[in-house]
Amino acid sequence: MGVAIEVSDLNAWYGTNHTLQSISLKIPANHATALIGPSGCGKSTFVRCLNRMHETNPIGRVTGTVRVGPTDIYAQTSAVEVRRRIGMVFQRPNPFPTMSIYDNVASGLRLNGFRNRKVLDEVVERSLEQAALWEEVKNDLRKKSGASLSGGQQQRLCIARALAVDPEVMLMDEPASALDPVSTAKIEDLIFQLKSQYTIVIVTHNMQQAARVAENTGFFLNGKLVEFDATHKIFTNPTDKRTEDYITGRFG
Amino acid sequence: MASTTAMPPLRARASNRFLRVVVNHLATVAAVGSTILVMAPLIAIFAYLLFKGASSLNLAFFTQIPKPVGEVGGGMANSILGSGILLAIASLMGVPIGIAGGIYVAEFGRNKRLANMVRFTADVLNGVPSIVMGIAIYTLLVAGRGYSAVSGGVALGIMMIPTITRTTEEMLLMVPLNVREAALGLGVPNWRSVLSITLRTASPGVITGCMLAFARVAGETAPLLFTAFGNQYWSTSLTQPIAALPLQIYVYALSPYDEWHRLAWAGALVLIVLIVVSVALVRYVAGRGTLKGAS
Q1: How confident is the model at residue B17, as a pLDDT?
Q2: B115 to chain A: which residues are within 8 Å by CB?
Q3: B33 found inside a domain
Q4: Phi/psi at A170 (nearest 5 deg)?
């Protein structure tokens, strides 16, 4: 089951560049939350702070607290442990190019030392089914490389790979921005189904997408969270003038 | 919107087209010519070795040890085995150290002084003449202890390290960031991600680097002169002087006897064929597991 995320006074830097400035918000469990805003506003950095990926950048730095469920992920646990509980799907599909489809999905468990063949088989099938990819690849599981699939299939493979380690939260950083409309629709359907079991945070440039999949939406601008509210409120009756300007297309 | 009337005519003029075809052909000729120029020495050497050496190859060459001066026949069986042992020692030492060094420089030592030192040292080591390597190992391992297979293997192993370290580094740096992030994002510890994902993705290039280093030291004579020393008899002892193909070729080629000259040619041919075969074998074994569509 998904868990809620509570962020308070989160700041992030790249070198001396203060990318995120005092962000506080509560992301409810088992809902999809969309983050919108113009390029460079800090929304990608924000999700990367939620699973401590930001600190893999040598010049990245973070302060503040992030609670995932009961755990303060910066104070009470290790980065590796956090990323095991919080799955991430990236902007560009990034299957492991030397691995078969099966090995890609199993990689999260295998690389953490899990070896039971029977359980792995079940997890791979279940995850690929959850990611709506099973029917398309079930005959080539071990024959084909993950990199041989189409872009949309690769992204669903990456989602299956993230689901296989049974995370509590799924972070999606513009998961459909490199895909065609058909694949995008499949990913959106997927998000719709997954949010009954996982807490989903999705970064998107596509405002229709945010409106379609997310109950709540946050608007970022220049490293600050301008407004965070129910999606229909953000799109029909925003409180802040800047939010209104952005969603009506007056800038950004 | 720019007005369309300002667009130049899309069709090139006839004279331009003629020039373009001529330049195109010239460039093709230059490229093909250079290819032939690069291939010619290799083919010439191989053909000459076949011409000079093939006639002296027989079963005895691969099964017998050298005969004393004046006796006809004999072979280089002990040298072939000796070279095998020396290269095994060298690879056991050079490949792990070289790859480990490359991993450190590329993955863990970014912008660190030690990594810059390793990189610089590797480049200098690559430029050290092989005879100097022989003398250095002589001073360190041989003087006072006697010539041995181990010292020869160590000399060759050290010569393999810089090539392997630098190619491993280059290949690891070519692995895209998003593949590394995929592994880290799954909650895989960094060391595990480096070994199981980054190194595995880069493995074809790393293997090429190892093969280059292997092929280079397989033909080295100078570092073995003062270390492995050579041996006219069967010996597989690691602490005794050991025969090696390049050494035996060197000794035979400098001798005044026609019979030995012929054996030297045959030895050179066998050496090249063995290098080509072992490189091809490693490539085959390493490439067997490659999947459809893997990049």
Answers
A1: 83
A2: none
A3: no
A4: -115, 125
- Chosen from A45, A73, A80, A142 to mutate, greatest number of chain B CBs within 10 A: A80
Asked if B60 is an interface residue toward chain A (Cβ–Cβ < 8 A), one would say no
Q: Is A162 on the interface with B (CB under 8 A)?
A: yes
Give the CATH number, domain containing residue B249.
1.10.3720.10
The residues in A 177-216 lying below 8 A from B, measured between CB atoms, are none
Range of the domain at B202: 75-287
Residue A115 tokens read as 């070896």
In a domain, B84, yes or no: yes
Task: Determine, yes or no, domain membership for A209.
Answer: yes
CA distance B294 to chain A (A): 5
Domain-located, residue A100: no
Quote the number of domains for chain A: 1
Closest-CA residue of B relative to A166 is B186
In a domain, A39, yes or no: yes
pLDDT of the residue at B289: 65
List the single residue in A with minimal CA-CA distance to B292. A144
Check if B130 contacts A (Cβ < 8 Å): no
Q: Collect all residues of chain A within an 8 Å Cβ-Cβ radius of residue B205.
A: none
CB B218 within 8 A of CB B83: yes
Q: Is residue B51 part of a domain?
A: no
Beta strands at A169-173 and A86-89: parallel, antiparallel or unpaired: parallel
CB A65 within 8 A of CB A75: yes
CB contact under 8 Å between B184 and A83, yes or no, is: yes
Classify strands A216-221 and A199-203 as parallel, antiparallel or unpaired.
unpaired
Q: Does A55 touch chain B (CB under 8 A)?
A: no
Region B14-32 average pLDDT: 90
For A108, the closest of B186, B203, B295 (CB atoms) is B186
Mean pLDDT of chain B: 90
For chain A, 252 residues long, the average pLDDT of each consecutive 10-residue run is: 89 93 94 93 94 91 93 92 93 91 94 89 93 90 90 93 93 89 89 91 91 94 94 93 88 61
Predicted local distance difference test score (pLDDT) of residue A103: 94
SS (H, E, C) A159-200: HHHHHHCCCCEEEEECCCCCCCHHHHHHHHHHHHHHCCCCEE
- For B105-148, where are the alpha helices, taking DSSP H only? 113-127, 130-137
Would you say residue A110 lies in a domain? no
**Confidence at B2, pLDDT banded by 50, 70, 90:** very low
Report CB contact under 8 Å: B200, A98: yes
In a domain, B86, yes or no: yes
Domain containing residue A10: CATH number:
3.40.50.300
The DSSP output letter for A145 is B
Nearest CA to A53 among A92, A77, A82, A95?
A: A82
Which residues of B are less than 8 Å from A88 in CB distance? 185
Split into its structural domains, chain B has a count of 1
Mean pLDDT (whole number) for B232-260: 92
What is the nearest CA distance from A105 to chain B, expressed in angstroms? Answer: 11
